[in-house]
Amino acid sequence: MIPRARHVVAAALSSALLILPALTGIANAAPATAPASKVYAIPMARTAVDVKRVADYWKPDRLKKADSYSPATPGAQASPTASPTSAGAAAGPSGTTASAAAAAKRTAADSAAPTLPRKGTAAKTMGKVFFRFGDKEYWCSASAVTASNRSVVATAGHCAYDPRQTKAAEYWIFVPNPGANGETPDGIYVGAALSMHEDWSGKGDYDFDYAFVTVHRGFVWVAKDGGYVMEDVGRLQDNVGGQGLELNKKPGTYTVAAWGYPAGAQPDGSRPFDGKKLMLCQEGATRWTVAPSLDLQKGVQLMGCDFSPGASGGPWLIGYDKNRRLGSLNGVNSLTWNRDAKGWYDAVSSPYFDTTAGEVYRRAASQNTPPNVT
């Protein structure tokens, strides 16, 4: 368990967008549903040939050193003009006028129950995503989410798409329950399609720094004749289970447990985490927060959490059952905060998971993938 960090004051320091050189080219983004929808889907690896190309990139020798790659690191910003301890922390997002009954109805419609794997009494949903932008590899945290297609991963938007490059990540894979030396005991799952909100892809609005990625059937590498061959292991949810989904929960009315694989430096340069262990920020209360310079107007902040880069995309879970290792997804690690301007981060925040997040999730859950990729 991660120690609770220091005291709460006003200054905030965020981390989220990959600092990369600008590249030209527009991603092939298309509206996912009707023209009024703001959900966009971008193909990643469509065919078995595409999957094989991505798989070949992540052979065991590369996976063994994957933890040495850079955790997806956002750049630091100055203290926000509106402090998280000011009005923005206490009030809800502007324009929230729905009645409690209507909000409850939306929540019921958008919720999904957690699911155990087909074998076993405990889930193994959490892991890492590995990907590349340009000629450099990165990684983030992520989790499997229950879905009708049994093939959805939740992570941060900046762990799948860089709006400053207008470019989706390449060679994107999810490895649940990864070993410290590149082991993939529960398979490797290649990204098939990325679902996100257009305000993340279009302008990097941190109110929408989340992504749901539909993945192909998993595989493991098997040694054969001096090389490796892919062996199919089935669908993600069948193998590891899926976290539930809970939307439209008002901050301050619940507690949440945040998970991830932190690895990056703290503000004082220290590195208390190595990125090889799944870490838990002890369950805590939530509140609204804002960061105007990042267009974050309806963020949710968890205090007392000293996660550093690498934890990006890790799940926020309500009602976590430590025996079944399941809860309900209510956010993802997006920004880290140094509110007291001292040596360590002391809070983490997520975009507010409302009905819009549910639309993105349903888009990912509706995608079909080939029955076999090996």
What is the straight-line distance between the termini?
A: 39 Å
- Count structural domains: 2
Q: Kindly estimate the percentage of residues that lie in beta strands according to DSSP.
A: 25-35%
Instruction: List the helices and strands in order.
Output: EEHHEHHEEEEEEEHEEEHEEEEEEEEH
CATH-assigned homologous superfamily of the largest domain? Trypsin-like serine proteases
The helix content, as a percent range, equals: 10-25%
How many strands, what sense, and barrel or not for the largest sheet?
Answer: 8 strands, mixed
Shape: globular
By secondary-structure content and strand pairing, the structural class works out as: alpha+beta
Cross-sheet strand order for the largest sheet:
14-19-18-15-16-17-21-20
Query: Which regions are unreliable across 5 or more consecutive residues at pLDDT < 50?
Result: 1-35, 75-108
- Mean pLDDT figure: 83
CATH topology of the largest domain: Thrombin, subunit H
CATH C-level label of the largest domain = Mainly Beta
Give the number of DSSP strands: 21
Number of helices: 7
Which architecture name of the largest domain does CATH use?
Beta Barrel
What is the radius of gyration?
Answer: 19 Å
Can you offer a commentary on this structure?
Residues 1-29 form the signal peptide. This protein is α+β, with helices and mostly antiparallel strands and 374 residues long. Helices cover 14% and strands 33% of the residues. Strands 14-19-18-15-16-17-21-20 form an 8-stranded mixed sheet. Strands 4-5-6-11-10-9 form a 6-stranded antiparallel beta barrel. Strands 7-8 form a two-stranded antiparallel ribbon. The longest helix has 11 residues, at 100-110. The chain starts with 29 loop residues before the first strand and ends in a 9-residue tail after the last helix. The model is unreliable at 1-35 and 75-108 (pLDDT under 50).
